[in-house]
Amino acid sequence: MTEYWFKPKRHGYGATPSHWKGWLVTIAFTAVVSGLSLVILLSLTEETRTVGLIAWTLAVAAAVWAFMEFVKKKTDGPWLWRFNGKSYRSILLGDRDE
Questions:
Q1: Are 13 and 79 in contact (CB under 8 A)?
Q2: What's the rounded Cα separation, in Å, for the pair 87 and 98?
Q3: Which long-range contacts (CB under 8 A, 24 or more apart) does 17-25 make?
Q4: DSSP string, 4-34
Q5: CB of 85 within 8 A of CB of 10?
Q6: Is the pLDDT of residue 98 over 70?
Q7: pLDDT class for 1, splitting at 50, 70, 90?
Q8: Kindly report the CA angle at 16 between 41 and 7, in degrees rounded to 5?
Q9: Which one, 15, 31, 55, 96, has the greatest CB density within 10 A?
Q10: Which is nearest to 22 in space by CA: 33, 9, 6?
Q11: Which residues contact 85 (CB under 8 A, 6 or more apart)?
Q12: In the beta sheet, which residues pair with residue 91?
């Protein structure tokens, strides 16, 4: 049995932590990315600024993508655009089952 750390958002797209492990991994991810970003961006010089900014942008994008994939695997249900707990698809098509 899989233990879910996140639940689908009631409004919008994505997931939100629903377990202490989900909160812990979210806070840790935010702290690590912020801390490393601060160190990297402050260490750039005039000669390394352009290449450094491009590398930093790609690294942060890759980290966010990997974190999102992890969160999707630990979410209890699919990620859908939702309003008031219902998917936009069911609202637009008039489905009453969801």
A1: yes
A2: 8
A3: 18/76, 22/71, 22/74, 25/70
A4: P-EEE-SSBSSEEE-SHHHHHHHHHHHHHHH
A5: yes
A6: no
A7: low
A8: 145
A9: 15
A10: 6
A11: 10
A12: none
